[in-house]
Amino acid sequence: MTAPTARTTTGTTTAPGATTADPLLEVRGITKSYGGGDTARQVLGGIHFAVGEGEFVTVVGPSGAGKTTLLRCLAGLLDPDSGEVRLDGTPVHAPPEGLALVFQDYSRSLLPWMSVLDNVQLPLRQRGSRAATRLAAAREALAAVGLAEAGRLYPWQMSGGMQQRAAIARALACAPRVLVMDEPFASVDAQTRADLEDLTLRLQRRLGMTVLLVTHDMDEAVYLADRVVVLSGAPTTVSEIVPVDLGTEREQMATKLLPAFAELRAHVLGLVRRPARAGDGK
Fold first, then answer.
1. pLDDT tens track of the chain, all 282 residues?
2. Which domain does 147 fall in, by range?
3. How far from 20 is each of 13, 46, 77, 161, CA to CA, in Å?
4. Residues 143 and 226 placed together within one structural domain of the fold
5. Are strands 99-102 and 178-182 parallel, antiparallel or unpaired?
6. What DSSP element (H or E) covers 211?
7. How far apart, in whole angstroms, are the C-alpha atoms of residue 270 and residue 160?
8. CATH number of residue 62's parent domain
9. 22 assigned to some structural domain
């Protein structure tokens, strides 16, 4: 894990497809359809945005907007029909080493017959890392998420919040430059969700990671982000990219009571609920 890096806010424009000066992750006009002929359904209609190094970006949109399809394209799990994804300037056609993915359903992402320590080591084992190296990385990652003493447990012996912490630790053990999270806190209770949000913020600041997180929760989107990418309905484009100027230190109660937070939340919610307009994201 790298030395602490200050969290920064990049991007000061609300134009659709706005980019950062030196993007680490670039989404260049990707499209994706399912089916063929008269039954073809276009899900992604040409998405453009970029994420800078050390930035925390959240993605929101209406149900059915293809957010999971977008993340699968970003992670190299699905090829777009056109356009491309670039990580540090290199086109992504398969899961890249510099990117790690955390899924919503921790109960399916952790293997129940393996201990937590072995689960966290699994991606490193698949990469051929030496035993001592992957064990040290796994223990460090578990400590970072508050599970230093839980390595011998099995997933079924842990609460939902602990399982999702273990899933985050597995991603951190790979020392990713970009952490992609697909609604990672949707399956836990409200208090655990708040705890995991704050944990993610602390890790992002401490490790200097770039984080891209998809969520349906408008409070979460604004609370966590440097910028919020708002998607339209399908065929999906970028409606607007909203800068979040709430400072680098966030606190669940104090931040969410700020008038600026309420204004941002209302603006993002209004964009999500707005009917699609011709030319959005173009």
1. 443 333 433 333 344 544 556 789 999 999 999 987 778 888 999 999 999 999 999 999 998 888 889 999 999 999 999 999 999 999 999 988 889 988 877 777 889 999 999 999 998 888 878 889 989 999 999 998 889 999 999 999 999 889 989 999 999 988 889 999 998 888 788 888 999 899 899 889 988 899 999 999 999 999 999 999 999 988 999 999 999 999 889 999 999 999 999 999 999 999 998 875 544 444
2. 111-174
3. 10, 18, 25, 34
4. no
5. parallel
6. strand 210-214
7. 32
8. 3.40.50.300
9. no
Residue 263 CB: number of other CB atoms within 10 A?
Answer: 11
Instruction: Please report whether residue 219 resides in a domain.
Output: yes
Statement to judge: residues 130 and 238 lie in one domain: no
Work out how many domains the chain is built from and give that number.
2
Establish if 186 belongs to a structural domain: yes
- Token couple for 266: 């209302």
Residue ranges in 110-159 assigned as alpha helix (H):
116-126, 131-144
In a domain, 253, yes or no: yes
SS3 274: coil
